[in-house]
Amino acid sequence: MKPKTFVMIALAAVASSAAAVAVYTTHNQWDQGRVVGEKLVPTLASGGADVRSLVVTHEGNTLTLESNANGQWTIKERDGYPADPDKVRALLVKLAQAELIEAKTRMPDRHALLELEDPSSKDAKSRALKLLDGSGNTIADLVLGKRRWEAFGSGKSGTYVRKAGDAQTWLANAEIDVRAEVRYWIEPTLLETESEKIQSLTIHIPKEDLLKIERDASDKTKTKFVGLPEDAKLKDTTAADGILRAASRIDVDDVRKLDAPPSGDVSTVSFKTEQGLEVTYWLRKDGDDYWLSIAGTGEGDAKEMAEKIRNRTKGWEYKITNAKAGSLLKRRAELIESS
Known about the structure:
Structural class: alpha+beta
């Protein structure tokens, strides 16, 4: 073959390949009305969207966050319990800034590889996120997939996304992590104080002896159980401090309305701090879960904290982990070595 003929054939092959790439690109990226670099939610990015509700669906669970007339965000499925506005705001900012950077598969049978399968399908790992305005009109209807760690450099991960009803998938340049879990949308720390400031604590479990802890008045670093038999030997000499630490911070996973004071098989944990704050937890088991309600009282320096607890928690009951319940509800038999 003559060199000139070879070159001409090679150039023809290159031109043919370029044409094929152009056709593929047109078909896979632009026939859906989206281009590389386009905003994920254009109306949100331009400031033309007034988002009044977010609907998150994952693994058969749905949470709806709604903005009331005062701009406060609440959780519809939890009787209007307040959502953390900073978390909602952070999500909306990410969505407004997110761009479609790299087109991925548009083959539905490969969506699951990116966790972008139909969110309503069995065992789906994808998450559905819908943004609505005040009239219930859809601003965005998205399917969110898994993250691609450090896709855009160190500490800059992306998220696989697609538009609901659209087979085209994309890598967006933002970490969009939403969950249909109450804990994710609220301030999960219900109460936090310094365990070293707790002066005394009592645990009352039905049909069990009262358990009491006191801090040594002369040496505040020391704590002791009060009322145990004189010959009692503790299995763990740090057990009292462990209970105080457990009581000093309560993190919650879920919340529900408490229409009446807790009744039935209810245990109580009460403590008093050196500032005069008195806190009582009521704990009861519902199925496999533990639910806690709380009250606080105090005067002087403790009054503001007590009012904060009362205003936030009155009329609500919170689900805590079984591990936390076990750390709080200690029985004498668990603490004392058998003779």
